[in-house]
Amino acid sequence: MNHKFLHAALILMLLAGAVFAEGSSEGDPIKFGGIWPLGDITGDQGSKAARIAIDEINEQGGLLGRPVELVVIDSELSPEKGAAAVERLATIDQVDFFVGGMSSGVHLGQIPVMKTYQKITMWTGAASHLAEEAVGENQDWYFHLHPWDYNQGASYVEGWNAIAQEYPEISIDRWFLAYEEGAFGSASYSATQALFSDMEIDGEAFQSAAVGGGDYTAVLERAKAYDPDVFIWAGYDADALPLMEQSKAIDFAPPLYVGAPPGWPASFGESNLAENVTLYGMWAPSLNEVSDVSKTFYDGYMSKYDSEPATYFAPLSYSAIHIIAEAVERAGTLDKEAVIAELQKTQYESALGETITFSPSNIISNQGIRQQKILQWQNGRQEVIWPFEFATSEPVYPFTPWSER
To answer: What are the tens digits of pLDDT across the range 358-393?
Structure first.
């Protein structure tokens, strides 16, 4: 073989190898690192909804010509395991973005590690203002979708005042709040006291069934003796049915029985214990009646999993993935500052029935949703009763006595 020809052939092979290597690098997946409590309905359905978003992006050709991937780790509702998950995703899995979240207590354990790596984060949980304080000012990489407790409280004040004005027979003067003893419940109680300061308010903590509790008799007996117009419990999905069963056992049926967990058991509506329980949330399947975007999300979830999404953490997690993806596409790069700039311009028409944008809250720069909805279980469905523009039903009042079920 001619030596000049051989030399030229070797050069071509080396060039081809270099091109192949460059193309291979460009084809590496863009990674989203998701952390959810997979044993809780919020984490189970939130992670599943995020996978739908990932699939949709890949079906459209990925991001920047590259596939996208979701790496999920279970926080197990443990601050230590939640923090370790952040560390692993950043160092071993080398993800580009952090998504997920539910518990404020877990997030308080994660925030110091997140601040070490400062990857763009789109967090769907953690309502406690203590988490916002831990994040601190000037952390432009941190985007918080879920309302803070004071956002939620302000929307509850607005909502209940509007409902009481629209339905004069509904009394909201005297309140009792039973709250789980962790960061979420304690912050909920403090916020309620501050925001409803012109009303009579009492409360007591309980140990959630999610962390080994489950006996609510003492707090329910105290609430019954207090005789509130509005009874609220703030805990987790594991508390929902036991609380109702124990309320029935002592014949505690306040005029308004309100539950405020981040998510409800998927089968809760099937129980007659659920009828006329009022709740807070950002989404319910009934929103399909007033939002085409909600219906599209719902149909996609049903098609993939053959089960109904039952918590607002599902569309919230779905939205988190798409919001980041759309910002990356607009930026045309993974450059952190460029993506942050595009995220701050977000106007995302969400399945929650509202357009998500970001603006400063009390401390952080990038707060998303600021309002919850007030809903009620009616005939096995969560119906929206406020805001009135999203309403799918009128409230049933008072709470149906146990003897009439």
So the answer is: 999 999 999 999 999 999 999 999 999 999 999 999
Whether the per-residue pLDDT at 303 is higher than 80: the answer is: yes
Q: Domain-by-domain residue ranges, the chain? A: 30-147+287-357, 151-281+373-390
Q: State the pTM of this model.
A: 0.84
Average pLDDT over residues 61-78: 98
> CA-CA distance, 318 to 223, in Å (whole number)?
38
- How large is the average pLDDT for residues 142-165? 94
Number of Cα atoms under 13 Å in the Cβ half of residue 65: 7
Whole-number pLDDT of residue 147 = 96
- Let me know if the fold of 30-147+287-357 is the same as that of 151-281+373-390: yes
DSSP 400: P
Assigned CATH topology for domain 151-281+373-390: Rossmann fold (3.40.50)
pLDDT tens digits for 4-47? 443 444 333 333 333 333 333 358 999 999 999 999 999 999 99
Give me the helix-helix angle, 104-117 and 79-91, nearest 10°: 30
C-alpha 281/C-alpha 32 separation (Å) is: 26
User: How many C-beta atoms surround the C-beta of residue 203 within 10 A?
Assistant: 24
Local structure of 278: helix, strand or coil: strand
The secondary structure of 259-277 as a DSSP string is: E--SS--TTGGGSGGGTT-
Question: Which residue type occupies 335?
Answer: D
What is the rounded CA–CA span in Å between residue 229 and residue 345? 43
CATH dotted code for 30-147+287-357:
3.40.50.2300
Is the pLDDT at 196 greater than 60, yes or no?
yes
DSSP for 170-218, please give it. ---SEEEEEEESSHHHHHHHHHHHHHTTTSEEEEEEE--GGGT----HH
Confidence band for 194, pLDDT divided at 50, 70 and 90:
confident
Q: How far is CA 366 from CA 31, 139, 181, in A?
A: 22, 9, 29
322's CB contacts (< 8 A; 6+ apart) are 53, 56, 57, 348
- Is 127 within 8 Å of 104 (Cβ atoms)? yes
Contacts of 70 (CB under 8 A, 6+ apart): 31, 32, 34, 47, 50, 51, 54, 321
